[in-house]
Write a structure and sequence with these properties.
Order of helices and strands: EEHHHHHHH
Radius of gyration: 20 Å
Helix content: 55-70%
Strand order of the largest sheet: 1-2
Shape: globular
Strand content: under 5%
Largest sheet: 2 strands, antiparallel
Number of helices: 7
Number of strands: 2
Length: 174
Amino acid sequence: MKPPAASSSGQRISPAASESNPEVVAFIAALLRQTDHAADLVIAFFRASGMAGPNGQLDLGLPPQFLLTLGAYLQLREWHDAGVIQWSHPEGLTIEDMIAAAIEELKRGPQAFAGSQHGSEAMTTVFRTWYETCSPVAREHLNCDIAIEWECGQGIDGIVEMLSEFVWLHRNHA
């Protein structure tokens, strides 16, 4: 018999719970991989800036919410640069603008991130983007072939036009 696994909070997860819900375990593992990759992107960012040692050590005492924010923006930038996602911001800002804004906010001092949830919110956006765009099991969990997000203020004509364009672009695909 296997011993119960421990969660990140130290609580024990019963083997029966993980065996009866393998998709939950797979989803949590994927989120952990995304978080780990975002941390790698942050280290690479600081290494490229000359602020991290060769082993990736950061002794800068940066606020966790800043690191989460930076990791999220770097992940979104990587996906955008690879053509995996489209980027749009209500104010027309680029991902580079968002990274620069986070750095500018940090320049005001670590207290600029104290008590904020900016990093957590940014990582939530990454997880949602991954789930809706990149997750191989999203189709099964969303119970549809495609998911469409649009502002409620747009009329039905806009959604019909977008669907028509989508179908036309992919008319030769199974």
